[in-house]
Amino acid sequence: MPKISPGGPELITGVISRLATGGASRGESVATPANLLDIGCGDGDTLAYISGQLGINAIGIDSSEAMLARARENHPGQAFKYGRAEATGLESETFDIVLLECILSAQPDIDAVLKEAHRILKPGGNLIITDLGPRGGLCPPGAIAPGELNELSAAHGLTPVFYEDKTAELDSFIAEIILKYGSISAWLGEVTPEKGDPAAFCPECFIPRDARQKASGIGDAGSKPPGYMLAVYQKPAAPPRQDFIKTKTTAVILAAGLSSRMGTFKPLLQVGNQPALHRLMNSIRSAGITDIVLVTGHSADKLEEAVRLYRQQAIKSAGDLTQRLNIEIAHNENYIQGMFTSIKTGLCHILKKSNANGDSVPKNMVDKTGNALIFPVDTPLISTGAIAIVLSAAGGDRDSLAVACYLGKKGHPLLIPLKYADEIISEEDLASMKAITDRYEDKGLLERVETGDEGTVLDMDTPEAYEEIKEYDRNTGGPSIQQILHARKQKIFFVRHGENIHHKGKIFLGQTDVPLSEQGKKESVDAAATLQEADLAPAKIYSSNLVRASETADIIASRFGDPPVIQLAGLREMNLGHWDGRLIEDIKQEFPEDYRRRGLCPMTFKLGPGSESFFDLRYRALKTLEQILKEDEDDLIIVTHKGVIKALLGCLSGLNDKRSWELHIPNGAVIELKL
């Protein structure tokens, strides 16, 4: 059966799996969804695949009797019935998931469809949408702008969960069609019972609304083709806050730095087919933010020219779109003193102050309602969806700052209510954005907002990081770790290293390098015996490069014919900063307040530059595992540490943060990953 949507049914199955995993990572109670409704189910392929893979009770509706007949013929064990997207005829609060795959932009009344989706969703249920979206940050006619979709969804009580650009899947999909069928028209005749009759199947996945009468190509010759997007919204269990759209938010882009570690001026580096600055501004605008303050410093003339070109391109590409574009320049004379001076400059500009020296302004002269959303210019992969999720969390007159996170790890942007602007501007001992988030988190005035978007934690401070960003951008939309392991039937066994030599007292042991004790060597032999019972034949064994892990790995390897042991720094235990290797009793006496804070929030606690929180560790470990999976499709033995195993098991097995933190993993333990 031909594939009839970009990404295929695997894309939707992966999203449902991610929703469960993401909920667990946020500490929520996660249950397998029981009921799914596929609106506009077509021939039923996606519905049947999801039902078979995940065991979900799925129902499909469609307004074409011909497509329903085909669906029933192809999948006799599934339930299909007649229904319209805006009037399904189904009971309220029935479904855990409602799917709108490639149909929303084709509907004459999108507002009515979203209203109906909200009605039939259970509280806490999710709406999954795939459809036309922006391409390269610009939203051509026929596509749905994320800001527009967020506003329409919010009007019906649906809050953003995540948004992702899936244009790569669309381009791949079209290329496959042309290679296989010769043309899109020939493919339409194959996949639709009415031989391309748009009443039965509308190819809105790739043809803009204003070009659907010209179904011979991707839009008309004079218009930019659309992209493809994935958006997920939730019907909250509690009444949602619907005032975030009304709250005035100004984006502040920090672009004043020297780019000294990069060696090249970062704002103008190409990411995809456009400069990093333009890429970031496009995402901000697509999220519905129309006021941008660009903070300049080094090479200010180059930035001003880049803004001039951007305005020209925006006007040219917008056509008859009337979205307001307001980009103001705020020059930071003190940029050499670091990022915090640029944050001050941006806030001062919003408040209409003339400098960043903390001078007070009479309250009746300054409007301190609304928010500032702070973006470093070297984070160009922050998606429109991530911005929308942070804005959704912002509410109206909020009492705390909010920061975007990925799997718990803090990233960007940072939302600052302007009520705190004077306080932040007057600070003298803060040097960075991280210092701000740490300070306000200690006060209980920072909300971590999980976005599900890795782009929020990727920056390009160094040439190596820039190459990583380009690689990530090229491969956006690839399969998740869970999808890879499911497809390969690949097994992963984690082994905690054996016991290390003892110290005179209990210490904080992170990356301090200590060897195995004699007991630890015996535990390693026992771990090898357990692995042999699993009938494994590893071509190589992966290990942390700390000696207590590598010694364990060497002992295990000797029982398997001595395959090579690949030592990886990414599998190290958590970096505990200047506490690492020190006696706990000494730390209690020297740092009583920090020790108390660690006890209150052990997963988010972080000592300072170079150290890690549990969420930092989790992200590092996941990136390392991703790299291993790229290079090795055999069953894996990974010898590492308690913190790494907890982080990976929790994230990949769907455990919430509290449960993963509390896992008991003794020395020498062998644990097979169960998805």
Brief digest:
This protein has 22 helices and 21 strands.
SSE map:
Elements: H1 8-25, E1 35-39, H2 45-54, E2 57-62, H3 65-74, E3 79-82, E4 95-101, H4 110-120, E5 121-133, H5 146-155, E6 159-165, H6 167-181, H7 184-191, E7 227-234, E8 249-254, E9 270-271, E10 274-275, H8 276-286, E11 291-296, H9 300-318, E12 326-331, H10 339-350, E13 371-376, H11 384-394, E14 401-406, E15 409-417, H12 421-425, H13 433-442, E16 446-450, H14 463-474, H15 481-488, E17 492-496, H16 518-533, E18 541-544, H17 547-558, E19 565-568, H18 584-590, H19 592-600, H20 614-631, E20 636-640, H21 642-653, H22 657-661, E21 670-672
Protein architecture, described:
With 675 residues, the protein is of the alpha/beta class. The chain has three domains: 8-234, Vaccinia Virus protein VP39 (Rossmann fold, 3-Layer(aba) Sandwich); 249-473, Spore Coat Polysaccharide Biosynthesis Protein SpsA, Chain A; 479-672, 3-Layer(aba) Sandwich (Rossmann fold). It is 37% helix and 18% strand. The protein has a seven-stranded mixed beta sheet, sandwiched between helices. A seven-stranded mixed beta sheet has the order 12-11-8-13-15-14-16, with helices on both faces. The radius of gyration is 27 Å and the shape is globular. Residues 23-31, 193-222, 239-245 and 353-365 have low confidence and may be disordered.
